[in-house]
């Protein structure tokens, strides 16, 4: 509390000095730079994480966003920001509070109220219904699309254009939150799907590279599976229906399925078309993996169990999202992360491998007032892109044992900023997972990014999931028949009744 | 009241047949008891392991190396004392509210024969048929803005105590229990000129003390572990309960710390169970 | 003629007394009625209304008549889920209903140690569900799980407890019995302790064997308690959600799909609250009919008691 008040006083002093200086005929600070930090004022011994004394130009990362002089025309604005670390992580929380204080010092009319709410589907629905969603909140994995669809995220297109952020972010990442040309969120982190594997296990079995196609994957997995010690050669999600449908679709994409096959329009009506050769081949491969090669884990799994299998050494290879390594590092703190690597998925019949992009996104509540939207937008952008704040975050993260930096990811921004950003992240990275193969594949175009089915996607996953689960648990499963039935159900029970 | 005995008398127990039966019972209970204690012990020792060790196949009840610091860490990050007090407050208020409301309703349905009794009982029982998660959202909306009074119960303990006081289960079980009390007792009291309230307080409640105690304990422990409603209703982290803390803890902490924290959170209700069980001794008490 | 006047006076007195009784009855009911109305009946009613609307995260967005029900009934998952519930209920009655009663009887006989076992059976309710299910996951694990390791040690083949569609429901019922027994044991114990022990003494003197005493004295005396517990068990088992959700996720291949699981998915995974409400209404109707029958039966038995 003392440090917080001190920061406020500091901010006030700084603001006053700036006003005085500018009144004395000095150049008014250009809107491009944030309020300049007086070196003397920041040498305060009491602040545990001081704003670095180096001037902005000397920081390893450039400024890319112009912060406005005033937010909401100086009117008082209050925003609730979710995602503040709970007080079980006091160091992080202190850093967060200080950051908020710095922002409030920059814009005294803005009041930031911290909330340690973290998104989870049950409680979120209740909050939306009661109009109590925090102004600024974060959404993970495959849910940003859902938020947009349901109309709970505010339209930020104008702000993106005004700050030039629509050009700064990587297009495929921005795609996740763009509908009909409008942008509804600020991507914080992006991930891609790929093949995670345990280098040591592969080396012990005599392999020096991950599988390049699915047949190679099957034979490698066979060599890696050991039922006596409980090791499965390969794992992907086949338990939780929604996630199972998602993973299976990715595999099917690899085998040639296109998202336009899943649902397409014909004579003004929606038609399902995923009962095709590509999907059948993918399902047959899954069947073989289970019953012919016997390489899959036996237990029904979900997102968490899938990652856990790799982390605890019960799976040698896993179809996984690149950011799950962070979760692994946090949940299994004692596991040696340098034994893992990330590669592109094995290539399909076309010779290319496929990946999906997803991300963690910051969104602003659609029921916020325009002033609140402005304040929340700039707060998020400032914490994410202001050079001093970036450095402060890295420094604070170094001291906290639960903070994980680095690991395989998809480029969040465009070059040249991306290269600088990636280099900086690399310096602070504490996640020694090797992913050069994946990167090269993306850069060379060997890995192609596809998008998820856009119409009734969730229903589609929910119907495909049990099909995969049956294939994996019932030796007598008739793959073709199950697939046809699933498509029929999807057609008659979902698409035909779409309102 | 004669000596405490069960179906078998003391003499029978000493006979050969009696010994066989009681030994058999003891053995069964011990085996069942072990099956019950095992997960408890597992949760405790999991807190002492490393995170990946927890998932090792096979029965490794004891860690390779006991990491006692996990418990210290969980305790430190947890801020236990404050959370415990909050949770006791919530659970106690909810238990009292539920017992009071349910007992009064059960008494009315059992003895006072209100008109439309069958309809009311059916309506009450019907609320059991739908799990709370089904109407969570309308329920939450009601709590944010009570009809007629237009007050918000968010961030107040009443926002938990009031919904917790609603329990069709308690009403039905208590009604069933009250039904067992012979009408003669009431008739005798009526002759003495007792009002229905007097009969309730001096007759019904004392005679049902054991079931009330049981239900009270069940409620207390149930509320202790409930997390969805407190998560939604209590906004200030200073008011939060243990189960919600556990939930936030599971977000970014290693598995073994999660287990340690969970075990620590179990201790107060376990203590409550231990102490209150002592009182569940006699039958009809006056 | 002389008689009519006192009769009328009595009638009037009785009327006033009846009204007073009714007022008393309703006074005691008032807190419950008020709270039930606010926090149960009103939200449930809203849910029923939602089932006729298209409801997303932002709330109701227009009436769609029976569209949600058409989708509900046309989905093969509906029939599957309810068939699964039937299986669960039957299994729970066979394997789960008598367990707490038997345990309570045994514990009641233990003079000195009964208290310990009382506490022990109650422990599962204290454990956070997620952890309890984690433990059971290890017990049932197909490779290296405790059960299978034990089976292998005695030369029996290991089973796929949670992966074999024929076994999985049984495995889940065991878990549910394990978790729910403690509370039921306590409730039965309370009933057992209320039995006047002199009845046993008399029966012993009359030459009844212990088994006969249980059959003819104990069980009949706790008959109504057993009935209400049975009804409650059926209602709760029909709403099974947590075990399929965390352990089997509705699998293998839909064999542990339940109405509440489907309802949860519709609501919180697809934000389709209209469909979720339709599921809730199906629960309401099936179990509501069941509850009404129960109340009607008890009413009849009560009436016969006083006639």
What value does the Rg of chain C take, in angstroms? 25 Å
Give the CATH level 1 class of the largest domain in chain B.
Answer: Mainly Alpha
Strand % of chain C is under 5%
Question: Total number of β-strand segments of chain B?
Answer: 0
Tally of DSSP β-strands of chain C: 2
What is the overall shape of chain B?
flat
Secondary structure blueprint with pairings:
The complex is a heterotrimer of chains A (499), B (286) and C (307).
Chain A lengths: L1 H22 L15 H4 L34 E6 L7 H17 L3 E6 L5 H9 L6 E4 L3 H8 L6 H7 L1 H4 L2 H4 L3 E2 L2 E2 L2 E13 H6 L9 H11 L7 E4 L5 H14 L4 H4 E4 L2 E4 L4 H15 L11 H9 L3 E7 L2 H8 L8 E4 L9 E12 L5 H16 L1 H13 L17 H12 L7 H9 L2 E4 L6 H17 L5 H17 L4
Parallel strand pairs in A: 1-2, 7-10, 12-13
Antiparallel strand pairs in A: 3-12, 4-5, 6-10, 6-11, 6-12, 8-9
Helix pairs in contact in A: 1-3, 3-17, 11-13, 11-20, 13-20, 20-21
Chain B lengths: L9 H5 L1 H31 L22 H10 L1 H33 L4 H10 L9 H9 L13 H7 L3 H12 L3 H9 L4 H12 L1 H17 L2 H6 L8 H11 L2 H23 L9
Helix pairs in contact in B: 2-14, 3-14, 4-7, 4-8, 4-10, 4-11, 5-8, 11-14, 13-14
Chain C lengths: L3 H47 L2 E4 L2 E5 L3 H8 L1 H21 L1 H12 L4 H9 L6 H12 L5 H8 L11 H29 L3 H9 L4 H12 L1 H16 L3 H7 L10 H11 L3 H34 L1
Antiparallel strand pairs in C: 1-2
Helix pairs in contact in C: 1-14, 2-14, 3-8, 3-11, 4-5, 4-8, 5-8, 6-12, 13-14
Could you walk me through the main structural features you see in this protein, from its secondary elements to its overall organization?
The complex is a heterotrimer of chains A (499), B (286) and C (307). Chain A has 499 residues and is of the alpha/beta class. Chain A is 45% helix and 14% strand. The radius of gyration of chain A is 25 Å and the shape is globular. Chain B has two domains: 4-72, no CATH class; 79-285, MetI-like fold, CATH 1.10.3720.10. The longest helix of chain B is centred in the middle third of the chain and has 33 residues, at 80-112. Chain C has 307 residues and is an all-alpha fold. Chain C contains 14 helices and two strands. Chain C has helices spanning 4-50, 67-74, 76-96, 98-109, 114-122, 129-140, 146-153, 165-193, 197-205, 210-221, 223-238, 242-248, 259-269, 273-306; strands spanning 53-56, 59-63. A two-stranded antiparallel ribbon of chain C has the order 1-2. At the B-C interface, helix 2, helix 4, helix 5, helix 6 and helix 8 of B face helix 1, helix 4, helix 5, helix 6 and helix 8 of C.
């Amino acid at each position: 509390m003392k440090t917080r008040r001190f920061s406020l006083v500091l901010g006030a002093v700084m603001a006053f000095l700036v006003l005085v200086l500018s009144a004395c005929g000095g150049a008014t600070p250009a809107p491009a730079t944030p309020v300049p930090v007086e070196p003397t004022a920041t040498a305060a011994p009491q602040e545990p994480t001081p704003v670095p004394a180096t001037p902005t130009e000397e920081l390893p990362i450039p400024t890319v966003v112009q912060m406005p002089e005033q937010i909401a025309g100086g009117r008082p604005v209050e925003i609730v920001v979710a995602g503040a670390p709970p007080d079980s992580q006091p160091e992080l929380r202190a850093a967060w509070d200080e950051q908020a204080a710095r922002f409030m010092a920059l814009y005294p009319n803005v009041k930031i109220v911290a909330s340690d709410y973290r998104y989870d589907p049950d409680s979120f629905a209740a909050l939306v219904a009661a109009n109590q969603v925090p102004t600024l909140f974060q959404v993970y994995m495959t849910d940003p699309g859902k938020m947009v669809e349901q109309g709970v995220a505010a339209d930020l297109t104008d702000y993106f254009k005004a700050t030039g952020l629509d050009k700064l972010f990587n297009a495929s990442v921005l795609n996740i939150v763009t509908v009909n040309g409008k942008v509804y969120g600020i991507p914080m982190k992006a991930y891609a799907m790929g093949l995670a594997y345990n280098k040591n296990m592969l080396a012990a079995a005599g392999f020096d590279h991950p599988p390049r196609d699915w047949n190679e994957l099957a034979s490698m997995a066979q060599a890696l599976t050991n039922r006596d010690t409980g090791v499965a050669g390969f794992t992907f999600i086949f338990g939780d229906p929604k996630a199972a449908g998602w993973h299976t679709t990715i595999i099917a994409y690899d085998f040639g399925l296109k998202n336009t096959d899943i649902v397409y329009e014909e004579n003004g009506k929606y038609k399902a078309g995923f009962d095709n050769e590509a999907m059948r081949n993918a399902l047959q491969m899954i069947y073989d993996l289970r019953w012919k090669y016997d390489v899959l884990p036996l237990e029904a799994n979900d997102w968490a169990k899938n990652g856990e299998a790799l982390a605890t050494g019960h799976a040698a290879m896993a179809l996984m999202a690149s950011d799950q390594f962070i979760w692994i590092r946090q949940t299994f703190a004692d596991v040696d992360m340098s034994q893992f690597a990330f590669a592109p998925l094995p290539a399909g019949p076309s010779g290319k491998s496929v990946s999906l992009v997803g991300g963690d996104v910051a969104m602003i509540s659609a029921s916020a007032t325009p002033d609140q939207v402005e304040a929340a937008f700039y707060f998020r952008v400032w914490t994410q892109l202001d050079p001093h704040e970036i450095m402060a975050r890295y420094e604070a993260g170094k001291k906290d044992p639960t903070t994980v930096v680095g690991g395989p990811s998809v480029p969040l921004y465009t070059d040249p900023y991306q290269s600088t950003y990636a280099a900086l992240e690399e310096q602070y990275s504490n996640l020694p997972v090797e992913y050069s193969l994946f990167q090269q594949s993306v850069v060379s175009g060997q890995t192609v990014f596809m998008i998820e089915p856009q119409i009734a996607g969730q229903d589609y996953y929910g119907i495909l999931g049990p099909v995969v689960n049956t294939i994996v648990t019932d030796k007598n499963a008739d793959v073709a028949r199950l697939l046809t039935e699933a498509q029929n159900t999807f057609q008659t029970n979902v698409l035909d009744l779409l309102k | 009241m004669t000596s405490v005995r069960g179906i078998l008398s003391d003499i029978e127990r000493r006979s050969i047949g009696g010994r066989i039966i009681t030994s058999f019972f003891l053995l069964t209970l011990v085996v069942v008891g072990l099956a019950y204690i095992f997960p408890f012990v597992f949760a405790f020792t999991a807190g002492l392991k490393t995170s990946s060790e927890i998932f090792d196949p096979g029965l490794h009840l004891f860690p390779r190396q006991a990491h006692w610091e996990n418990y210290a860490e969980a305790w430190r990050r947890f801020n236990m004392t404050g959370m415990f007090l909050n949770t006791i407050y919530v659970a106690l208020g909810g238990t009292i509210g539920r017992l009071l409301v349910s007992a009064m309703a059960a008494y009315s349905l059992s003895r006072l024969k209100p008109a439309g009794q069958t309809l009311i009982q059916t309506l009450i029982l019907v609320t059991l048929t739908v799990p709370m998660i089904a109407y969570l959202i309308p329920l939450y909306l009601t709590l944010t803005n009570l009809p007629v009074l237009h007050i918000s119960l968010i961030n107040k303990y009443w926002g938990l105590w009031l919904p917790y006081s609603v329990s069709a289960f308690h009403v039905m079980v208590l009604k069933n229990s009250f039904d067992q009390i012979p009408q003669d007792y009431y008739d005798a009291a009526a002759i003495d000129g007792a009002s229905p309230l007097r009969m309730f307080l001096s007759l019904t409640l004392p005679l049902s003390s054991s079931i009330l105690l049981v239900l009270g304990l069940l409620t207390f422990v149930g509320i202790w572990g409930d997390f969805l409603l407190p998560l939604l209703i209590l906004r200030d982290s200073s008011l939060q309960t243990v189960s919600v803390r556990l939930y936030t803890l599971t977000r970014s902490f290693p598995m073994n710390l999660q287990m340690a924290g969970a075990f620590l959170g179990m201790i107060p209700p376990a203590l409550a169970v231990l102490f209150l069980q002592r009182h569940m001794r006699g039958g009809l008490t006056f | 003629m002389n008689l009519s006047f006192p009769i009328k006076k009595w009638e009037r007195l009785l009327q006033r007394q009846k009204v007073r009784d009714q007022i008393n009855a309703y006074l005691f009911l008032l807190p419950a009625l008020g709270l039930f109305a606010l926090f149960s009946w009103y939200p449930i009613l809203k849910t029923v209304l939602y089932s006729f609307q298209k409801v997303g995260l932002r709330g109701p967005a227009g009436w769609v008549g029976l569209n949600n029900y058409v989708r509900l009934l046309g989905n093969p998952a509906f029939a599957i889920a309810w068939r699964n519930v039937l299986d669960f209920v039957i299994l729970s009655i066979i394997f789960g209903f008598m367990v707490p009663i038997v345990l309570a009887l045994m514990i009641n006989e233990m003079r000195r140690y009964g208290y310990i076992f009382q506490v022990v059976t109650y422990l599962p309710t204290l454990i956070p569900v997620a952890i309890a299910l984690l433990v059971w996951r290890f017990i049932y694990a197909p490779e290296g799980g405790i059960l299978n390791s034990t089976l292998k040690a005695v030369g029996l083949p290991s089973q796929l407890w949670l992966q074999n569609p024929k076994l999985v429901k049984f495995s889940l019922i065991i878990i549910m019995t394990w978790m729910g027994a403690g509370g039921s044991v306590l409730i039965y114990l309370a009933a057992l302790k209320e039995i006047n022990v002199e009845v046993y003494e008399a029966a012993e003197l009359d030459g009844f064997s212990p088994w006969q005493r249980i059959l003819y004295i104990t069980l009949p005396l706790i008959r109504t308690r057993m009935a209400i517990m049975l009804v409650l068990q059926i209602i709760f088992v029909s709403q099974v959600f947590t075990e399929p959700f965390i352990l089997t996720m509705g699998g293998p291949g839909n064999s542990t799909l339940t109405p509440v699981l489907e309802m949860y998915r519709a609501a919180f995974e697809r934000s389709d609250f209209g469909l979720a409400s339709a599921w809730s209404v199906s629960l309401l109707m099936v179990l509501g009919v069941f509850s009404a029958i129960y109340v009607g039966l008890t009413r009849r038995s009560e009436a016969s008691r006083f006639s």
